[in-house]
């Protein structure tokens, strides 16, 4: 919405967007936004690239380069205006409208995700819960009634959900993914430990907790063996 | 264990490890292992780089390059032996010994993680649950009694845990992280939406679900605005 407002999205930012912000930069923007919101909550009005980079856990040269893609360079001796920069990052990420999320798979993890309070203040609303298990369908989780998988298409249409969150076992994930895509979702965040096939217009992000642990194990192992 | 066995860790692999496997390659190894285990479960004995790459969701040139760091090149016209390659990846990641994990923060997410059945067959055992809330301490989750934060050091020492999993709110995460580091943990997987400071000998992996959604929002936004 504000994406079309010239005050919030200056010409330089639009030009950058057209050139295409690199995916690695996009992946770091949520971290900057998180740090900016924390600064704002502390009443901080302006911040330096060093402070912001430190809070976000990146180098300050990296931060300055990333923010230059948004047409944001800070001011020498003054730094970045926290509120203005927050708006710029939000506009770049498209967070000026709330995006609606449907969760499929209401087991332990789906339950936890449905109840996660951190979505709302970061631009997302959970609008639908779906499960294949008749014992789970009809129960109320986080204020929403869990509905059967064959209603997925109707739920996505009725709620205008654009993002699907897959919290099913690995064996069911591709089928659920296909159903989400067919229902019209264009972004999928999956927690199932398998890779998913989607058409080119759909984006997938994957979180595999055991894979993250295995990456940590590698470092521990290297240390232990003195490699 | 098998890490010191010459059969399972050939000279070439050890040489590669000494040269240092690039972090991006390390991050892809768990995906290859996941795909290899799925193939083995289907009774597949040998696989091509094309098939394995497809299953893992990467390009086959990328796969071959990554596996060459393990000293594994496949055989022309035969491909890779599924079982042997699985072992090589497991040795490289240090998964030949089970690693012990302590979870701090037994709210909705900590609860779901404690109950996650996917850890055990991927090399990890949850050996301790810790929470700061007196109402949660003493309850049993996934067969373990939740213990208070001030027992963390004793739990890590008694269980020889090397990895800590942080599922607390953001405000508590740095304090919990410091306590885990002090207790002797060398790897931390955090779900709290804030960056954490650790000493150089400790590795941190971060999963921030809302950040993942924000990255998906970016792509949806770009599509919607025709950028």
UniProtKB/TrEMBL annotation, chains A, B:
<feature type="domain" description="CoA-binding">
    <location>
        <begin position="95"/>
        <end position="195"/>
    </location>
</feature>
<dbReference type="InterPro" id="IPR009718">
    <property type="entry name" value="Rex_DNA-bd_C_dom"/>
</dbReference>
<dbReference type="InterPro" id="IPR036291">
    <property type="entry name" value="NAD(P)-bd_dom_sf"/>
</dbReference>
<dbReference type="Pfam" id="PF02629">
    <property type="entry name" value="CoA_binding"/>
</dbReference>
<feature type="binding site">
    <location>
        <begin position="105"/>
        <end position="110"/>
    </location>
    <ligand>
        <name>NAD(+)</name>
    </ligand>
</feature>
<protein>
    <recommendedName>
        <fullName>Redox-sensing transcriptional repressor Rex</fullName>
    </recommendedName>
</protein>
<keyword id="KW-0963">Cytoplasm</keyword>
<comment type="subunit">
    <text>Homodimer.</text>
</comment>
<keyword id="KW-0805">Transcription regulation</keyword>
<comment type="similarity">
    <text>Belongs to the transcriptional regulatory Rex family.</text>
</comment>
<dbReference type="Pfam" id="PF06971">
    <property type="entry name" value="Put_DNA-bind_N"/>
</dbReference>
<feature type="DNA-binding region" description="H-T-H motif">
    <location>
        <begin position="31"/>
        <end position="70"/>
    </location>
</feature>
<dbReference type="InterPro" id="IPR058236">
    <property type="entry name" value="Rex_actinobacterial-type"/>
</dbReference>
<dbReference type="InterPro" id="IPR003781">
    <property type="entry name" value="CoA-bd"/>
</dbReference>
<comment type="function">
    <text>Modulates transcription in response to changes in cellular NADH/NAD(+) redox state.</text>
</comment>
<dbReference type="InterPro" id="IPR036388">
    <property type="entry name" value="WH-like_DNA-bd_sf"/>
</dbReference>
<keyword id="KW-0238">DNA-binding</keyword>
<dbReference type="InterPro" id="IPR022876">
    <property type="entry name" value="Tscrpt_rep_Rex"/>
</dbReference>
<keyword id="KW-0804">Transcription</keyword>
<dbReference type="InterPro" id="IPR036390">
    <property type="entry name" value="WH_DNA-bd_sf"/>
</dbReference>
<keyword id="KW-0678">Repressor</keyword>
<keyword id="KW-0520">NAD</keyword>
């Amino acid at each position: 919405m504000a994406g079309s407002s010239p005050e919030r999205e200056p010409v330089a930012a639009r030009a950058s967007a057209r050139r295409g912000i690199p995916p690695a930069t996009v992946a770091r923007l949520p971290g900057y936004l998180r740090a900016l919101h924390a600064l704002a909550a502390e009443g901080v009005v302006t911040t330096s690239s060093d402070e912001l980079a430190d809070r976000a856990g990146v180098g300050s040269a990296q931060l300055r380069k990333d923010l230059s893609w948004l047409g944001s360079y800070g001011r020498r001796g003054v730094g970045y205006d926290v509120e203005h920069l927050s708006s710029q990052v939000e506009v770049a990420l498209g967070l000026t409208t709330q995006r609606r999320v449907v969760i499929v798979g209401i087991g332990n993890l789906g339950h936890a995700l449905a109840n996660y309070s951190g979505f709302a203040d970061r631009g997302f609303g959970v609008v639908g819960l779906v499960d294949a298990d008749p014992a789970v369908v009809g129960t109320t989780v986080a204020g929403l009634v869990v509905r059967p998988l064959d209603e997925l298409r109707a739920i996505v249409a009725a709620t205008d959900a654009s993002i699907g969150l897959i919290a099913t076992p690995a064996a069911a994930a591709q089928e659920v993914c296909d159903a989400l895509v067919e229902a019209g979702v264009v972004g999928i965040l999956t927690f199932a430990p398998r890779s998913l096939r989607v058409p080119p217009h759909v984006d997938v992000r994957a979180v595999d907790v055991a894979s993250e642990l295995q990456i940590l194990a590698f470092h521990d192992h290297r240390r232990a063996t003195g490699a």
